[in-house]
Design brief:
Organism: Sphaerisporangium aureirubrum
Strand content: 15-25%
Low-confidence stretches: 1-15, 322-328
CATH class of the largest domain: Alpha Beta
Number of helices: 15
Number of strands: 16
Protein name: CHAT domain-containing protein
Structural class: alpha/beta
InterPro entries: CHAT_dom
Shape: globular
């Protein structure tokens, strides 16, 4: 090794911090490339992390597949139908405007606590304003391209939202319409709206759905004990009864102290339908740490689920309260539902915010009726359940659940119909108590 020459800087001493950082990045990239190359040698993972081709996107677009993203000057939607691509310019959907809307909405959400009947909170007023803006900025123009000349819309639309749009309920975008029960027409009134993180995940989800039709249920309900800051969910049992009645042949329930992380992990591989009636935590800064909160307040994290190689027809995340950040937001979002899709679920029904417990039970109960009882797809079943819960009066709900009690056909089960009937019969008959956005619009469907 050569001796240093006095007065002459060594080559190492001349390396700037910037150059050192660049060398570390290049080394990390080489290491990543080597790992990816090894993964691609595993059968079935030949395309791991490969850039999608248009053939991948076209193959995924069995129905309209819409990429929608904000940009600095103006946003853009690309509606893909097979080999056909339609460009939809969205002048109002700028990056700065989306960030401002999301930041404001999350700031007011910090003050929100779900209530069954109360005057609108500041967050609910902000939610109304954001979803109204979403119609003008994006969804109105997109939905306008789905309506053929006969005036009927295409059956379903899958959205791939870019950046922070993934945090907003595009399916709840609305415009005034005095002909509707609530005076509003929402995006999901026009067509079934589902979400996907990308085209390849949608193709993989369809394959899983064909292989795992969904017969074996694992229900995880009301884990106990929980830290005191997690609110009680008194109607959680109704959700689980509706789920087990929908899949009675092969249902397993883990409740209370039994709902531990270890027990749930052990039971997951045998199930192809998951029903979680518990709290959740979304970590937007470290998305792999987003979690379902189980007994003792211990998290079942997304990174744990990704390591399990699941094959699930549907995961229903019922009454999960999402712990959202304030104004420090990332540029891209990996949510728990999209992460579950990557982990091996064909479809996920989940909530974007903390929904009142009673409204959750109504939507979930009616969802299972339509999915398992009427044979609708999960996306269509959720849409129909949300619209029914939103638009019916208390008297109309009571009439349906009274008929269910008389029929006794099991969907919803007797105890669920009876409990819900007890609630709505003491309300004002003509009121629509679940019509506000916070009660029904938080649920969304991801995948197929």
């Amino acid at each position: 090794m050569a001796e240093p020459v006095p007065g002459v800087p060594s080559p190492q001493s001349q390396i700037t911090p910037e150059a050192a950082d660049l060398a570390e990045l290049r080394a990390a990239r080489r290491e990543l490339d080597e790992v990816v190359a090894l993964i691609r040698e595993v059968p079935g993972y030949e395309d791991f992390l490969a850039a999608p081709t248009f053939a991948d996107v076209a193959a995924a677009a069995e129905g309209p597949l819409c990429y929608v993203t904000p940009a600095e000057a103006e946003g853009l939607a690309l509606i893909v139908r097979g080999d056909d691509v339609e460009h939809v310019p969205l002048p109002e959907l700028t990056t700065d405007e989306v960030r401002a809307r999301v930041t404001g909405l999350f700031a007011s959400y910090d003050e929100f606590r779900p209530r069954e009947d109360a005057a609108p909170t500041a967050w609910e007023l902000d939610l109304d304003a954001v979803t109204r803006w979403l119609w003008d900025a994006a969804m109105g123009d997109i939905l306008g391209r789905l309506t053929p000349h006969d005036g009927t819309a295409e059956d379903a639309l899958t959205l791939v939202p870019g950046g922070l749009l993934g945090l907003l309920p595009l399916h709840a975008a609305w415009t005034a319409d005095p002909a509707t029960p609530t005076g509003r027409r929402h995006a999901l009134d026009v067509t079934t709206v589902s979400y996907a993180p990308n085209a390849r995940s949608l193709t993989a989800a369809r394959k899983i759905a064909r292989e795992r039709p969904g017969h074996t249920l694992l229900a995880v309900t009301d884990p106990r004990p929980m830290p005191e800051w997690y609110p009680e969910m008194p109607y959680t049992a109704l959700d689980t009864m509706a789920a087990t009645a929908a899949l009675p042949a092969a249902a397993r329930t883990l409740a209370g102290e039994e709902a531990t992380v270890a027990a749930v992990r052990d039971a997951l591989p045998a199930a192809d339908v998951l029903h979680f009636a518990c709290h959740g935590r979304a970590d937007l800064a470290e998305p792999l740490d987003s979690a379902l909160m189980l007994s003792g307040g211990h998290p079942l994290r997304l990174r744990d689920l990704l390591a399990m190689d699941l094959r699930i027809r549907l995961a229903v995340l019922s009454a999960c309260e999402t712990s959202l950040p304030g104004t420090e937001l990332p540029d891209e979002v990996v949510a728990l539902p999209t992460g579950l899709l990557q982990a091996g679920a064909a479809g996920v029904v989940a909530s974007l915010w903390a929904i009142p417990d009673l409204a959750t039970s109504m939507v979930v109960t009616e969802f299972y009726r339509r999915w398992r009882g009427h044979g609708l797809s999960p996306g269509a079943a959720l849409r129909d359940a949300q619209r029914w819960v939103r638009d019916t009066t208390n008297a109309e709900k009571a009439a349906v659940w009274e008929r269910d009690l008389e029929a006794g056909d099991g969907l919803p089960p007797h105890d669920v119909a009876d409990a819900l009937l007890d609630v709505v019969t003491v309300r004002e008959p003509g009121d629509r108590d679940e019509s506000r956005l916070s009660a029904w619009a938080g649920f969304c469907h991801v995948g197929v």
